[in-house]
Structures are given as structure tokens and as C-alpha cells.
Design goal:
Length: 137
């Protein structure tokens, strides 16, 4: 494969992942009611808890399976070795990017932090997580 295509593919993978991380950040923060973990669903599927567990499981499985040496070897049989990481990054971005659109609102509050100090701590921890994730991409 041409080197220019491999580089273009890598850039598409990175930009897709960055976009999905930013999308998930907006989804988890209460900044956009139409695209929020507490907002209405884009597509209503029941039962909500099962759909949400399946979405999280899909992301976890994709990450776990594609990180295995045997899967990396499989990718390298079909594509140049230089594309292996980009395929992983693109797949992660796509799976993560789909999550906010298929997420189903849950009727009950699972946990809440009401105190200002606690909320500041949670948001600071969240910001560190976002920065680390963006750096990892």
C-alpha cells in the first residue's frame, strides 16, 4: 500500500478517536440537553439497562480483543503492519462514538455528589481523565 494512504488512514483514525472522546465528554457533562446522559434517547430501545450494558460491553470487548497479539497478527496478515495501530484506534473511535447516540436514559439516579467540594473533585478527576485519554489518542 502507498505510504500516503497509510498516513491518511492514520489521520482519519486519530481524528475519529479525538471526535469520539470529545463527543463522549459533551455527553457526560450537563452542557447539551439534547445530547446528554440524562437527556432523552435518540433511538428508544428497551430494556434500557440491557442496551447500556451491551454498549459498554461492546467497547470493552473491542478494546480487549483487538489488543491481543493474535488479533494484531490477524490484522497484519491483511494489512501492512504500519496500519495495525490505526485500525485499532479507528475501531475504538467508532465504537465509542456510537455510544452516546444509542445510550438509553435510566429512570433512577445511581449516584450523586451534592456538596460543592465533592463536585469540584469529581469534575477535576473527570478533566484529568479526558486529558489523559486525549493524550493517549
Amino acid at each position: 500500500m502507498k505510504q500516503s494512504f497509510i498516513k491518511l488512514f492514520a489521520w482519519v483514525a486519530v481524528l475519529t478517536s479525538l471526535a469520539s472522546v470529545l463527543l463522549l465528554t459533551v455527553f457526560l457533562l450537563p452542557v447539551m440537553p439534547s445530547l446528554s446522559i440524562d437527556g432523552p434517547s435518540w433511538i428508544s430501545i428497551s430494556p434500557a439497562w440491557l442496551i447500556n450494558v451491551l454498549l459498554i460491553t461492546a467497547f470493552g470487548l473491542q478494546h480487549s480483543i483487538m489488543a491481543r497479539p493474535w488479533f494484531k497478527a490477524l490484522i497484519c496478515m491483511a494489512l501492512p503492519e504500519a496500519m495495525e495501530r490505526s485500525v485499532y484506534v479507528l475501531a475504538s473511535g467508532v465504537v465509542l462514538g456510537v455510544l452516546p447516540f444509542l445510550w438509553q436514559p435510566m429512570p433512577a439516579v445511581i449516584w450523586r455528589v451534592d456538596g460543592a467540594v465533592g463536585q469540584l473533585f469529581i469534575y477535576a478527576l473527570f478533566a484529568v481523565g479526558v486529558v489523559l485519554t486525549l493524550a493517549a489518542v
